[in-house]
Amino acid sequence: MLARFRLSCGLLLAALLAFAHAGKVFWLFRQHVERQREQQAMREVQMRWQLQSQFRPTMLNSISTKVGVIPQRLDHFNRQERRVFNQRYWINEQFWQRPAGPIFLYIGGEETLTPFSVVAGHHVDLAEKYKAMVVALEHRFYGTSLNPDGLQDENLQFLSSQQALSDLVAFRHFITEKYNLRANHTWICFGGSYPGSLAAWFRLKVDVNS
Length: 210
Fold this sequence. Notes:
- The protein is of the alpha/beta class.
- The chain has 4 helices and 5 strands.
- The protein has helices spanning 2-52, 122-130, 161-178, 194-205, and strands at 65-73, 84-92, 103-107, 133-137, 187-190.
């Protein structure tokens, strides 16, 4: 009986270790896929930009972007939850008229965000026209904006629009402090589909001047 119990415990432990290893392998595979998608997206946007460059005075290689991460709370609504993750962002200051120019926030959705989110697109054309800074925030749990164990089932509860809105609030505060902006500085949000909904909710449900 004791031998059977030990055998059962051993098999259970082996199964748990195999499951944990499989989860880690899956996470590494997902990161590899995300990197491949990001590189492909960058190549596609660069090709489109090069085709358009003959009609635009600004060339892609003349634009300098900044990339960084902001530590975000995994759960904004539970102060006892101490875990954080690094959320990736990009900044393009090329067209910004300091210090009063508006901030254009491009909101990431259900995919990897690339640096081209701040150098290409209609919102960037508008930024050039209105002398705005363009910033972009990658959505939590996409791209590299993921805590190491984020794919565990128990952590998926933190993948929600409410948490994403709180990420945007924290990011706005971060940029405001980084560039010493006014509390009532003008922010304009851009997004399509789900990020478009986040942009609307950010304006309607969060106390910001946007």
